[in-house]
Write a structure and sequence with these properties.
The protein is an alpha+beta fold. It contains 3 helices and 5 strands, in the order βββββααα. It has a single domain, classed as YlxR-like (Hypothetical Cytosolic Protein, Chain: A). The chain is 35% helix and 22% strand. The longest helix is centred in the C-terminal third of the chain and has 20 residues. Bound molecules: zinc ion. Zinc ion binds next to loops.
Length: 99
């Protein structure tokens, strides 16, 4: 008998590292002009994953990898919104404890 559980794994679209799904942030395509952060991980639609780090977030969004993977063309507003929302994720995970 094994006590190991199956942990779902996903690949970060920016750095290509395979990580546990819950360590990554899912982005989901809402329309071909709009992508949103899926914090529940359960939204329907084409999705992709990024590490909650400034490096991956910027590489994924600014290099167009997200758009390529999701076959979407983000509006500048949408892209900016995602970058800002991403910052809240990795700032939380870095500064963590205090609130
Ligand atoms: Zn990454």
């Amino acid at each position: 008998m094994s006590i190991r559980k199956h942990i779902p794994q996903r690949t970060c679209v920016a750095c290509r590292q395979v990580k546990a799904k819950r360590e990554l942030i899912r982005l989901v395509r809402i329309t071909d002009r709009r992508v949103e952060i899926d914090s529940s991980g359960k939204k329907a639609g084409r999705g992709t994953y990024l590490c909650p780090t400034p490096e991956c977030w910027e590489a994924g969004l600014k290099s167009g990898r997200i758009e390529y993977t999701l076959r979407a063309t983000l509006t500048p507003e949408n892209q900016e919104q995602l970058i800002k929302q991403g910052e809240t994720f990795y700032k939380e995970s870095i500064s963590g404890q205090s609130k």
